[in-house]
Amino acid sequence: MKENAKKFELPFHVVKRSTIPVWKSMLFRVIAVVAALLLCSILSLLMIDANPFKFIVTMFDGAFGSSRRIWKFAKDACVLLCIALAITPAFKMRFWNIGAEGQTLIGALAAVAVVIHGKGLPNWLLLVLMFLAAILVGAVWGGIPAVFKAIWGTNETLFTLMMNYVATGLVSYYLLLWTPSGSSVLGRLDQGHLPILGHEYLLLILLVLLLTAAVYVYQKYTKQGYEISVVGESENTANYIGINVKKVIIRTMLISGAICGFAGFLIVGALDHSVAVTSVGGMGFTAIMVSWLAKFNPLIMIGTSAFITFLDQGAAQVTSTFNVDSAFPDMVVGIVLFFIIGCEFFIHYQLKFKTREEAAIPAPIKSEKSESEGGNA
Amino acid sequence: MMLLDYILTSVAIGMTFLLGCTGEILTEKAGHLNLGIPGIMCIGGASGCLALKACYDLPGFLAVIIAIIAAILGGALMGAIYSFLTVTLKANQNVTGLAMTTFGVGVTKYVMNGMAINATRNYLYALKYFRAPFASADTGLKYWGIMMYLAIGIALASAYVLTRTRVGLHLRAVGENPATADAVGINVTAYKYGATCIGSAVAALGGLYYIMDYMGSMEAYKTIEALGWLSVALVIFTLWRPQISIIGSIIFGLLYLAGTRIPTLLGINLGMSATPLLQMLPYLVTIVVLIITSIGKKRENQPPASLGLSYFREER
User: Do B113 and A327 touch (CB under 8 A)?
Assistant: First the structure.
């Protein structure tokens, strides 16, 4: 056989780290982000002829350039954070809920339905009903896949994904019903608005921050939160110590769906005052990144959702300043995500470079006996 | 006649699912759940169309071949990024896949919008070559172009390789239990890279087929993502068997078009508002199939045992 090919060895080998200081892991992430932004600015230089320095400045200008932009930034980050908070308990349990998009949308639809069918009710009652309807429907939407997962082990990734499209279908159905002209564009509802505290978005921001604290406490200090982490680490262990895994899965997804429904309620009650197929606009998927990047810690998620919103809004500003296509932000976010996903490797593993003496010693020769049929270890 | 047209068109749209699904099966057989398939299909369409635009002055058949090669290369490149992140850097497959989809859809929008602005000499000139030999038919037969036979050929070839050859046996071993495969001397990394890149290339062809044969419009790229997700779901429907996916994809095609075709076929007027409900059918059927296969729990109908898990040799 080709002896030369067999002798080829990498100059290092990969070792799993047992621990890593927090500052070091943060340093790796910062390096990854800087490298990614550098690559993006080089790309932008090639594609749209913008100089890299101006590219970065425009990104910051887009997110924080004026008080209006800062408010918009805070609002967008909070809605994203709210959805990310919703999926976090499920992800911590290793339940791959990629249906947050649908759960939020169906919650928004329920809230709008309450306003449309509840004409004449006082505003406070309307708001209470909207809230209840949204979290109830969201919980049902999240609970259905959970029940099947718990009982028969049905693949939850695809189930929740398909539920997104069912939710979209229902929204377009009701829009056709509610708009007599058949235009299926629902105008701004004049009822069911959340009260305005100081600034248009202030109440929304406060509510989401409150929710962040609540989810943090729930995960960290309650028995249920503990059960979630045990089920996520190992279902066998959970069974062994007497946790009812099925119950935990269903309960957690009900909570997850309910928080998504709450996000839908916020979108209707505080922002759009309407619903459309694109109301959630892909945030259900972006939220997965937010949650995963923060290692499912709600407090860190404030930072990661702000970061992703910054990328999105900054890149959007780049598109308008340099007059490029509106798809540009998606590309920037994609590239940055690749770098961050890749850098996790260096946090969990370590490259050990071989010293000269080690490299000189030939690697132990693999047993050639594996050709006999005793290979099924 | 209308029924025939419905069936012919369904078979045609089904080929988009078939290519996406075959690609995903190959990837999953190596133990990698690639949720980037929708993005990869978009990239396939975009790179194929870019190549077509560049080949405007070449003879038709040559342009088609170059476009197909471009789509394969675009898909394989995306597959290589995905494998580098998930195999070498052992990143979480779900998260990586979703990022691939965000990225792929973004790049595709960028490329396709760019081409739409400068619409002279656009890629649609090649439509008649892609739709050969029935390009001039006035029924659904006109979609039965060359890439359709390619799709069926790829599916049958994949089925043969997976079940009847040594390479297929090794690939399945890698997907079921990489540690065991490694122990008997199979190069796990090479198989994972190979299967993911080839699978992504096959899926990328699905995007090109959809734009240049089935839709034949400048707007087609906007709907590839949803079809990509259906292709991923189809993998479960077909129980990880490419030969079944040929039938499965046609069934999905029939369901996908049911919303628009069945009311006219039966001569009833359901009213406009019923259309979205009928359009939910393929998704609802997928859910039902998911549930049924999970209740069945037959051993040979289960996903590859190590699906979604990273393999690190020194871990036990």
Answer: yes
A341:B89 CB<8 A: yes
Is A176 in Cβ contact with B272 (below 8 Å)? yes
Residue A240 within any structural domain of the chain: yes
Q: How many CB pairs under 8 A join A and B?
A: 162
- Helix locations, B165-241, DSSP H: 166-176, 178-183, 188-209, 224-237
**Cα dihedral sign for B288, B289, B291, B295?**
positive
Mutate to test the interface with A, among B236, B280, B288, B315 (most CBs of A within 10 A): B280
Q: Inspect the interface and report whether the beta carbons of B273 and A176 lie closer than 8 Å.
A: yes
Q: Average pLDDT, whole number, for chain B?
A: 89
Same domain, A104 and A206: yes
User: Would you say A250 and A146 are in contact if contact means Cβ atoms under 8 Å apart?
Assistant: yes
Cα B140 to Cα B142: distance, rounded to the nearest angstrom: 5
- A326 and A247 part of one domain: no
- Assigned domain for A9 exists: no
Minimum distance, in Å, between the CA of residue B233 and any CA atom of chain A: 6
ipTM confidence score: 0.84
pLDDT bin (cut points 50, 70, 90) of residue A362 is low
pLDDT digits (tens, 9 = 90+) for A232-290: 888 889 989 999 999 999 999 999 999 999 999 999 998 888 898 888 888 888 899 88
Q: What CA–CA distance (Å, rounded) separates B10 from B12?
A: 5
Tell whether A276 and A225 lie within a shared domain. Answer: yes
CATH number at residue A283: 1.10.3470.10
Chain segment B251-290, per-residue pLDDT in tens: 999 988 887 787 777 777 666 667 788 888 888 988 888 8
pLDDT digit string, tens, across residues B232-244: 888 888 888 999 9
Which amino acid is present at B4?
L
Q: Are residues A166 and A252 in the same domain?
A: yes
* pLDDT of amino acid A355: 67
Question: Is there a single domain that holds both residue A178 and residue A291?
Answer: yes
Mean pLDDT of A188-216: 89
Cβ-based contacts of A342 with chain B (< 8 Å): 84-85, 89, 91
Residue B94 to residue A158, Cβ atoms within 8 A:
no
Centroid of chain to Cα B288? 21
Contacts of A352 in chain B (CB under 8 A): none
Final residue in a domain of this structure, among A314, A344, A369? A314
Residue ranges and CATH numbers for the domains of chain B are 2-301 (1.10.3470)
What's the gap in Å between the CA of B248 and the closest CA on chain A? Answer: 17
Q: Residue B184: how many CB atoms within 10 A of its CB?
A: 15
Interface contact A28, partner B, CB < 8 A = no
Contact yes or no for A182 and B272 at CB 8 A: yes
Mean confidence (pLDDT) of chain A = 85
A136 with A269, same domain: the answer is yes
A301 and A190 within one domain:
yes
- Contact of A152 with chain B, judged by CB distance below 8 Å, is answered with yes
Cα–Cα distances in angstroms (integers) from residue A315 to residues A49, A67, A341, B231, in the given order: 15, 18, 20, 31
Task: Count the Cβ atoms, other than its own, within 10 Å of residue A43.
Answer: 17
Amino acid at position B248, single letter? G
pLDDT band for B160, please (50, 70, 90 cuts): very high
Is A370 domain-assigned? no
**Are A107 and A209 in a shared domain?**
yes
Dihedral (C-alpha) B130, B133, B139, B140: value to the nearest 10 degrees?
Answer: -50
What is the chain B residue with the closest CA to A288? B95
Which residues span the domain enclosing A309?
69-314
In a domain, A36, yes or no: yes
List the 326-355 stretch of A: residues with Cβ below 8 A of B. Answer: 326-331, 333-335, 337-338, 341-342, 344-345, 348-349
Instruction: Please give the tally of structural domains in chain A.
Output: 2
